[in-house]
Amino acid sequence: MNIVISGLGVVTSGAWGWDEAKDLFSAADPRPVNIDRSAGYHREGGARKALLVDAGRMGDWLSPMAARRMSPASRFAVCASLMAFRDAGLEPQPDDGTTAVVMGTTYGAAFVTEKILRQVFLEGPESVSPALFTESVANAPAAQIALAVGARGANNTVTQRQVSVIAALKQATGLLRRGSADRVLVGAVDEMSPLLHAILDRFAALAQPDDDGVETGRPFDARGSGWLGAEGAAVVLLEREDAVRNRGGSFRARLLGAGSAFDPGAPRSGWGKSPGPRAQALGAFLEDHGVSPGTVDRIVCSAGGLREADRLEARLIREVLGESLLPPVLAPTATAGSHGGVLLAGSVLAASGVTFGPTPGFAVPDREAGIVPHDGRPLPRPETVLLTACAPGGSAGWALLGRGEV
Amino acid sequence: MKVVITGVGAVSGFGWGVEELWCGLESGATSIRVPSVFDVEGQRTTLAAEVGPPDADAQAGIDSLRNLSRADVFAVIAAREALVRAGLDCGGSRTGVFCGGSTAGMAECEDFVGRIVGVRPGKPMLKLLASQQLNGPGDAVARDIGACGPVIGFSSACASGAMALGAALEAVRSGEVDVALAGGADSLCLLTYSGFNALRSVDPGPCQPFRKDRQGLSLGEGAGMLVLESLDQAMARGAEPLAELAGYGASCDAHHMTAPHPDGDGALAAMRAALEDAGLEARDVGVVNAHGTGTSHNDQSESCALRRLLGDRSCEVPLTAPKGALGHVLGAAGALEAVASVLALERGKVFPTAGSVPADPDLGIDLVLENPRRLPKASQTWISTNFAFGGANAALVIRSLV
Q: A220: exposed, middle or buried (C-beta count within 10 Å: 0-12, 13-18, 19+)?
C-alpha cells in the first residue's frame, strides 16, 4: 500500500500555511522575540529569545469563540489541521470513524500546566479553573482537532521527546495499512511558555546570547550553544495513494516508512556520544525499505545548535550513510526553532522540491560533528528524503519520504 | 498471528505486585483512603488510592533506582515483575517498550515549581525534572531492561494505557518486535487532584461505579505492565501464556472535551472495532471489565453503549469495574485493568465491584457485587474499556487460551 501526504498545514514563527512556510525556509532568516521573563523563573543571564507564533493570524482559521476554550497548542493544532484539509482540496466533514488523528508532542500542555500550578500554589486548589484543566492533558490538541473536523476514528497522542513526530507518523501509517482509517491527520504540536523556556535554559539546552547579544541556533557549528526555543504545529493529511488518485487529487510527498530505536546506555537526560544500537536500527530500516545510502538525496535533521545533540545526530547519519559524499543536510530548526512540527513541515517541503536558504547561524564547522549543512545553493528536486531526529535519554527516529506529484 | 500475554506486573493501591492486586480485588475491598503524598486541605474530596510503602523485597529493588520519578519507579517495578513471570531476561533490538501515562513526573515538577514560586522549601533542583516528561516511565523501563527497539510514550489521558497495549499488539503482529513490554504508569499529583476537584467530578467518599447514587470518581496511582509476544515464540521457548490479547479498537466521540457522548456512540465504535480485530462478535463477550469511573454521565453513557453492543444479553454478561477498588489511575488505568483481567481469567473468577451496592437498576447491566463470581467456561473472553478526556476511546479483547 502506498501512503501519501495529500495536504500540509503549518503554524510556526514566521509562517502560516504552505506558501509562507516555503518563503520562510527559502529566506532562512529566523526572527526570535523576547520571551516573558517577568515571573522570575529564569536564571540570571541565559536565553531571552524564542520563536513564537503570531497569534494575531489565528482569526483566519478559528473564531474567537472557539479559540477561547483552547490552549495555545490546541489552537495551533486545529489551525494546522484545517490548513491540511484545505491543502488537500478537501472540506472536513463529520465522519463515521474513517478519519483518525495522531499527534506528537514533546512537552505537552506547557502553558496550562504553568497556570494551574500557579493557581494551586498561590491561590489554593479551589481556585483552579475547570476549563483550564480540560486543556491540561497532552491529548487536548488531538481532541480539539477531532471536534473541529468531526474525526471519529482513533485519536491518539504520542510523546517521545524530539522523536514524537516520527512516532506519530509510525502510528498513523499503521492505522492506514490495517484499514483502521481511510485518512489520518498526523502531526506535532508544542507551545513555549515562560516556565518551559526557563527550564530548558536551566538545562543549558537553549542558544545563549553571543557577544552582540544575538541568540541563534547554529547547527553543526563549533560555536553552537543551544537551540532556539519555539512553538507551533504541523499537521499532514495521510491517505492511501489510490484513494487520492480516485478522487482526482494530488499529493505533496510519499511517506515510505517511519521507525525508531532506543539506546538504553544513553544518559537519562543527556545525549551521549555514540549512536550505538540506533545506527544499526537505522541501517536495517533503510535496507528494509530498499534504500541504499547512496540513494538518499536529501537529509532533514533535528540538529538545532546544541553541540552535544548535533554531534550525536551527525555520528548517526555518518555511521549509516557513510563518511563522505553525504547528500545535502537541511536543518530547518535553525530557521523555525525546535519543535516537532518544524521537522515534519521541513521534510515535506524538502520532498516537494522547495528551495532552502543557507543554514542560519552556520559558519564555523564543528569538526567533531563533521557535517556541513546546506549552504543555500539550488538543489535538484529529491527523490528520497531521510528525516532523522535524536532525543535526550536514548531515543532516535527516522522517516523516509519520496517526491510527490503536485 | 496470535499474540499472547506471558507476564504481568502491577503496582497499585493494594501494594507492590500482582498477588497484592488480586487479593485486594477478590476481597471486594477498596484501597481508597486519605493520601499522604500531599496536603488535601481545601479539596472537595480528601481521598485517593495511594500506593503505600513497599515491603522489604520491593524496597530492595527500588534502592537501585536513583533520581526516577514516582511513576517511573512504579513502571520499572511492574515491568520487572512481568518479565520474571514471563521467564524472560529481556533486552536487545527486538524488544520494544510501549508505555502510557498522563502525569509521569508531574509530582516532581510540582515540587520544582513550588520551590520556584517560594511555597515549598529548598532550591529548585534540576534533578527534580530529569524524569518529568511524559515519556519518562517508558524510558526508565527500557533503560532498566536494556531494550533497544522502539520506545514510545502514549498520552491520551485515561485511555493511554490501553492505547499503549494496542500499539504493542500491532508491533508484535507486524514483526517489528519479538517482545513488547506494554502498559502504563501514573502517580498522584496536585495538578490532576485539584483539576478533578475543580470539575466537581469527584466523589467525597470512595468511588462507587454504577451504584444508584454514585457521585464521582476517586483518583489513584500505580502501574500495570504486560509482556506480549507471539504464541509461536512463547511455545517455542516453553513459556506458559497467561492469556491472548486478541483485539484492540479505538475511536473518538468528537462530541465534547469532557462529557461522553450520551448514547455511547464512540465507546460502542471502539468495542466493535476491538471485537472485529479479534475476529469475534458481540455474542462472544463473556465478561466486561468496564471503565466505570463512578461519575453519573460516564457510567450512564458506558452502560448505554454496552446495551447497544450486547442487546438482550447486557443484563446477563457479568460486568465488573475496578475503579471502586483501585481508584482512577488515569494513564495507567487501561494497563492495570488489563492485568486484572488476565489475573481473573487465570483464576477463573470475576472480581467484584467494590462499594457499589446497590447497583443502579436503570443501567441494564449485571454488575458483579460483594463476592467474586466463578467464570463459566463460555465466559473466557473479556472486553476491557477505557474512555478519556477529549472523547478518545479504547477497548481491548483479552481471552483465555484454554
A: buried
Would you call B142 and A128 a contact, using CB atoms and an 8 Å cutoff? no
Q: Mark whether A246 and A262 lie in a shared domain.
A: no
Distance from CA of A281 to the nearest CA of B (A): 8
Contact assignment for B170 to A152 by CB distance below 8 Å: no
Nearest-neighbour CA in chain B from A95: distance (Å)? 10
Domain of residue A398 covers: 256-405
Distance from the Cα of B141 to chain A's closest Cα (Å) equals 9
Handedness of CA B123, B126, B128, B132 (dihedral sign): positive
* Omega within 30 of 0 (cis) for the link into B358: yes
Is B242 within the bounds of a domain?
A: no
Contact call for B389 and A134, based on CB within 8 A? yes
Does residue A291 share a domain with residue A237?
Answer: no
- Which residues in chain A have Cβ-Cβ distances shorter than 8 Å to B266? 152
Contacts of B389 in chain A (CB under 8 A): 134, 137, 139-140, 143
Which residue in B257, B276, B330 has the most chain A C-beta atoms within 10 A of its own C-beta, making it the best mutation to test that interface? Answer: B257
State residue A98's pLDDT score.
95
B105, B137 contact by CB (below 8 A): no
Whether B256 sits among the annotated catalytic residues: the reply is no
**Helices B136-145 + B70-86 axis angle, to 10:** 40
Q: Tell me, yes or no, if B261 is annotated catalytic.
A: no
Q: At what angle do helices B265-278 and B296-310 cross, to 10 degrees?
A: 40
A215, A207 in Cβ contact below 8 A? yes
Catalytic choice (B90, B158, B189, B304): B158
Q: What is the mean pLDDT of residues B159-180?
A: 98
CB contact under 8 A, B116 and A161: no
pLDDT digits (tens, 9 = 90+) for B232-262: 999 999 999 999 999 999 999 999 998 999 9
Q: Which three cell numbers stand for residue B317?
A: 454478561
Cell of B347: 483464576
**Positive or negative torsion for Cα B328, B329, B331, B336:** negative
Residue B402 has pLDDT above 70, yes or no: no
CB contact under 8 A, B153 and A158: yes
| CATH number for the domain that contains residue B17 | 3.40.47.10
Instruction: Please tell me whether residues B147 and B24 are part of one structural domain.
Output: yes
Rounded to a whole number, what is the largest CA-CA distance in chain A? 62
The pLDDT tens digits for B89-142 are 888 999 999 999 999 999 999 999 999 999 999 999 888 887 788 999 999 999
For residue B172, being part of any structural domain is answered with yes
Q: Give backbone dihedrals phi and psi of A31, rounded to 5 degrees, phi first.
A: -125, 75
Nearest-neighbour CA in chain B from A269: distance (Å): 6
Half-sphere exposure in the Cβ direction for B216 (13 Å, CA) = 16
Closest residue, chain A, to B129 (C-alpha):
A199
Q: What residues in chain A have per-residue pLDDT under 50?
A: none
A248 contact partners, CB below 8 Å, separation of at least 6: none
Rounded to the nearest 10 degrees, what angle do helices A72-87 and A140-149 cross at?
Answer: 40
